[in-house]
Amino acid sequence: MLTATGLTLGRLLIGFAIAISLGLLFGYLIARYKWVDDTLGFLVTALQSIPSIVWFPLAIVWFGLGNASILFIVTIGATWTMTVSASTGFKNVPSLYLNVARTLGSSGTHLVRTVVLPASVPHLISGLRMAWAFAWRAIMAGELLGGSGGLGYLLNMGRSLQQMDLVLSVMIIIGIIGTLMDNLVFLRAERSVQKKWGLKPSL
């Protein structure tokens, strides 16, 4: 059980990191360039409505059964949600911040690093939280259908052998991990950011 949990979390973290990197890049391009927003922005909205598990047949054809297919499913499951949240955050950066920064000589990557990203943090934190939820569901679906090892594989094995104790144990572990990550990491970070930015009154 510990080995399966470690394998699932390892796959999840790799796919999640890829998804976040792509989401931030796509989100910035959509917010920065109108023609990208008119093309890629429309495509992202369409792709976001497609459940990640629908991509699994294509993943098998492209990568075969294995880690690559599961990573693809996880990445697809989280990328578009992160892209939408990132683009919304970047678009909502107050123009006053940008004008002041440009007046003081900031531009290019320095402007993005010191102004755009910090001002978008509330949206980015919410995007990370939602992307993690989508990635978590995607990896369970991927491992159930074609993963070797991992919690999803154990869940499928318990179903095949009709071992309900194994099925329930895996379900409990999935629920505990999901709850801990959401409450101890993302929810705490979101509340901290809201308090720092004055979006939520401190108690």
Could you characterize what this model shows?
With 203 residues, the protein is mostly helical. It has a single domain (2-195), classed as MetI-like fold (Orthogonal Bundle). 84% of the residues lie in helices and 0% in strands. The protein has nine helices and no strands. The protein has helices at residues 2-32, 34-48, 56-63, 67-91, 95-103, 108-119, 121-146, 150-160, 164-196. Helix 1 crosses helix 8 (150-160) and helix 7 packs antiparallel against helix 9 (164-196). The longest helix has 33 residues, at 164-196. The chain is elongated. The model has no long low-confidence stretch (mean pLDDT 82).
Brief rundown of the structure:
The chain has 203 residues and is mostly helical.
Structural category is: mainly alpha
Strand content: under 5%
Q: What is the number of E strands?
A: 0
Count of discrete alpha- or pi-helical segments spanning 4 or more residues: 9
CATH architecture classification: Orthogonal Bundle
CATH homologous superfamily grouping: MetI-like
Order of helices and strands: HHHHHHHHH
Q: Note the overall shape.
A: elongated
> Might you state the CATH topology name?
MetI-like fold
Q: Please give the oligomerization state of what you see.
A: single chain
CATH class category label: Mainly Alpha
Weakly predicted, low-confidence segments: none
Helix content: over 70%
